Amino acid sequence: MSQRLKICHDRVLPTELLRPQSLVRRRGMSRAVLEFRKMWVNGSRLRVRFLGGTPSQQKTARDQAAWWTPHANLTFEFGNDLDAEIRIAFDENDGAWSYIGTDARQIPRNAPTMNLGFLDGGTAAHEFGHAIGLGHEHQNPSGGIQWIEDAVIQNLSGPPNNWDENEIRHNVLQKYTVDQIRGTKFDPESIMLYFFPGSWVRGGKGTDANEILSTLDKGFIASRDAYPRDKRPITDVKIGAAAATRAKIDKPGEEDIFRFSVTKSGRYVIQTGGKSDVVLKLFGPDSETSLIAEDDDSGVAANARISAALVPGEYLAQVRHVKPSATGAYTLRVDRA
Asked: What CATH number is attached to the domain comprising 321?
């Protein structure tokens, strides 16, 4: 008898629909499924708003969100802010899903960024894992799960998922590329890994139903690769300074945060220099979670460059290396265009 399972599906931005994960296998590269380009600034306060739901459903969401906060250097604040970073619906006809990390900031304010259509076990904790940047553990490139594709497609094509083949490949069969993610080896006990029956897997050994955070979940989300308590200091940058600010990614996975203040509305250019290939994100005004823009290679050579119309306020520029395993020196400067 076929088994019909409730499985979370990733919500991706329209610009990523045609860029599915690639199937990869590389030796010596064990990474947890943290999509580092979609991470919030370490130490962020993430506001959460419910778009419906019963008191019992809302309590479950609150309680399971709190499973992450003793370990991740993030705060969840539940309230009614219209521009809350995380907005939760409880549509039982739409399954369970969440946008990944900072992707949520590109969703219209009146639309949910997460849906909890079922709350079995640790489903809410799983979706909050997505909301802080975690992907599915079964898509870890070091996981080694060998699927019986016909069985997976047949089962997930029916209720309660009713996915087409592209959705099944995106959410289950395809693996992340090694340069998308960072962290630990494959964790069979992770809250980010759903139960799969042995009939879906070559060798006949499926996965367990993980309903609590694993030891590796807790340790990884608190590590320097994710949201450690020892935040890096913020470096102040002067607009139009004669010399660019020099910086360096000293350790793999490190992020640098720069702060500058705009006193007059206008267009400003934030750009990196040097040989290091970095990703640049701009947040503000006066917010560490309102993502204005992100760039990789719009500058000279492999440098990042953001040109944006800014209003008065304080802004944060976050810099990470493109490759989570890489280090290197670079410079950053801010000028009025």
From this structure: 2.60.120.380
